[in-house]
Amino acid sequence: MEFDDSVMIPRAHAEKGAEHKQRMTLHCQQCSAVWGDSFSICGEVRSMDSIVCLRVTNDVVISDVLESGHGGELAGCIYSALKCRGCCCAVGKVIHSAPWRLASVRSMFLLHKANTSCYMLNHSSMVTASSLTFDLKPLGESMNKKTTWMRGLSRKPL
C-alpha cells in the first residue's frame, strides 16, 4: 500500500523496519490478555500513537456505541471504542467513517501503544509497544523485488 498524504507512515529504509520482522504477540499492559500478533500488524499512526492491525483476538471487544470525533485527530470521524475483555481498559478504536486523511485506516483496529505490551518471541521478553516502531515498507518496493526475482526464475533452464 502506498501512503501519499496519509497518516500511515511508510518505511523508507530497510533497517528502520527490522523491529517488525521480529515475531511478537500484543498484550494488555494491565491483565496480559492477548490482543493480536505481528502477522496482523500493518503499520502505525504516529499522530494517534496507535498500532494498526488487520485483526485482533476475541479479548478485544468492539463497543456497540458509535462515537463522533469533534476535535483533534478524530475530527469528522465515526468510530467505536475497543476494550479489553479481561480488565475492561481502553484498547483503542475502529474508525468506521473518516475524512480522506484517515481513509487508509478505516475498518482497521487502532491499538493504543501506551496500553499495549509486546512479547518478543525471539528474545522471550516483554517490552512496551511505545518503545517500538511499526513502520512498514511500501508495497510498490516489495512488488518490484518479487518481479525481479520472478524474471530471474523464468530465464533459468529447467
From TrEMBL:
<dbReference type="GO" id="GO:0000785">
    <property type="term" value="C:chromatin"/>
</dbReference>
<dbReference type="GO" id="GO:0034080">
    <property type="term" value="P:CENP-A containing chromatin assembly"/>
</dbReference>
<keyword id="KW-0132">Cell division</keyword>
<dbReference type="GO" id="GO:0005634">
    <property type="term" value="C:nucleus"/>
</dbReference>
<comment type="similarity">
    <text>Belongs to the yippee family.</text>
</comment>
<dbReference type="GO" id="GO:0000775">
    <property type="term" value="C:chromosome, centromeric region"/>
</dbReference>
<keyword id="KW-0498">Mitosis</keyword>
<dbReference type="InterPro" id="IPR034752">
    <property type="entry name" value="Mis18"/>
</dbReference>
<keyword id="KW-0539">Nucleus</keyword>
<feature type="domain" description="Mis18">
    <location>
        <begin position="23"/>
        <end position="121"/>
    </location>
</feature>
<dbReference type="GO" id="GO:0007059">
    <property type="term" value="P:chromosome segregation"/>
</dbReference>
<protein>
    <recommendedName>
        <fullName>Protein yippee-like</fullName>
    </recommendedName>
</protein>
<dbReference type="GO" id="GO:0046872">
    <property type="term" value="F:metal ion binding"/>
</dbReference>
<keyword id="KW-0158">Chromosome</keyword>
<keyword id="KW-0862">Zinc</keyword>
<dbReference type="Pfam" id="PF03226">
    <property type="entry name" value="Yippee-Mis18"/>
</dbReference>
<dbReference type="InterPro" id="IPR004910">
    <property type="entry name" value="Yippee/Mis18/Cereblon"/>
</dbReference>
<keyword id="KW-0479">Metal-binding</keyword>
<comment type="function">
    <text>Required for recruitment of CENPA to centromeres and normal chromosome segregation during mitosis.</text>
</comment>
<keyword id="KW-0131">Cell cycle</keyword>
<keyword id="KW-0137">Centromere</keyword>
<dbReference type="GO" id="GO:0051301">
    <property type="term" value="P:cell division"/>
</dbReference>
